[in-house]
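Here comes an entry:

___
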Amino acid sequence: MDWLQLVLLIAAGLWGGALNAVAGGGTFFTFPVLIFCGLPPILANSTNKFGMWAGSFASIGGYWSEIKPQKHRLLLLSIIAGIGSIGGSVLLLMTSPEFFKALVPWLMLCATLLFAFGNRIVRAIHARTAHHAAAGKAGRAGGLGGQFAIGIYGGFFGAGIGILLMALYELMGIRNIHQMNGLKVLVATVVNALSVLTFIITGMIVWPVALALGLGFFIGGYYGAVFAKRLPALWIRGFIIVYSLSVTCYFFVFGL
């Protein structure tokens, strides 16, 4: 890794961490950067998880006051998501490099569409369940299974996981947006932490790259929102969608 790549990785982490703190979508920037730096797709994915964990961990402090009152649901959701994350990480390790390479453009496309239309999905779920007690009870019952499934996806790939978690918590009947964000940040941190631990044990982390990216993610996750909030969130989301669609099209046409 030369100095240019080092600067690029730290800058990508800074930008990705700041985006995750404000609008989400940081993985759409950092994962392609790792690919373009020459990492094979599976190694790029597992190494990127370290940066994602560093950024989400840095964001916990900002939501701690919203996280503390939810101890009754935090432990259970975190355990279920963590078990799913380990399962998804093991599934990734069992996937052949050729298959995952062919799968990446489709994962990027699905994650981009989820990011683009995620807010509409959350609003639709809220509109359907807000005034229906039966739906709320069913949502809470199905929420544990949904949390496990999202944990698997988070361990396997993870782009767009924040939108999935927000939609799930709407379905479970949580209406306070700050509590939802607090849950999302903490559960995502657990998912990423156990995924990273799995990859560390199996030797799937490229450490010089991971540390540079993680440094950027941590600083970006902690301080980036201060600067990013000066821009309209709609502009940021639009830029992320255009960029991620462009990268996805590139992967479809030219491969990884």
Observations:
- The chain has one domain: 3-254.
- The radius of gyration is 17 Å.
- The mean pLDDT is 83.
